[in-house]
Amino acid sequence: MSFDSTIEPTVRDEIHSIVVQLLIDVDVDIRLRLQEDLVGYIDEVNSSGDRPEYVPSKEDVLFLIVERLLKIGTFTTEQDLNIMAEYYTNEWRA
Hints:
- With 94 residues, the chain is mostly helical.
- The protein has one domain (11-93).
- 60% of the residues lie in helices and 0% in strands.
- It contains four helices and no strands.
- It has helices spanning 11-25, 32-45, 58-72, 78-89.
- Helix 2 (32-45) crosses helix 3 (58-72).
- The protein starts with 10 loop residues before the first helix and ends in a 5-residue tail after the last helix.
- The mean pLDDT is 82.
């Protein structure tokens, strides 16, 4: 059977599903904007193509989530933390 990207979920959809499941598993409530940032980052790092065999493993996704959160959380001043908090909590400003 051949791959049909109009019917099959995309790699990004699969990554999003894994991210959501991991967050549910650890009982963490993360805003939609941050979820989208994580999915975009993982998809960018993993960008080998959009075929099902390119979906990263759950372990790879978890590693990339931690890596991204560490990068996001690396701020040096109180002002940087406030900017980050405002960006990720104001979802209505896409």
